[in-house]
Specification:
Distance between the termini: 28 Å
Largest sheet: 2 strands, antiparallel
Radius of gyration: 15 Å
Number of domains: 1
Shape: elongated
Number of helices: 2
Strand content: 5-15%
Length: 73
Amino acid sequence: MGDVIQLDPFTSVIRDDVPAHIDTYGQMMLIVAFSALAKLRDSASNDHSRKHVDAIVKQLGALLSRYEPDGVA
């Protein structure tokens, strides 16, 4: 499990002594999910649905930006 973030199941706290990192497969899965949600948001038929999906897209985007290489953004 050296390629994923370690979680302490008893405290539900992410370890702070390990820098943010993610394996390539996990990163690609997140990017595919982000893309699918962005398409769903853009094709939503009503404003209420669009706002809910947009909130999820923004949260996932913030997560993905955490794993960008330094200097990219």
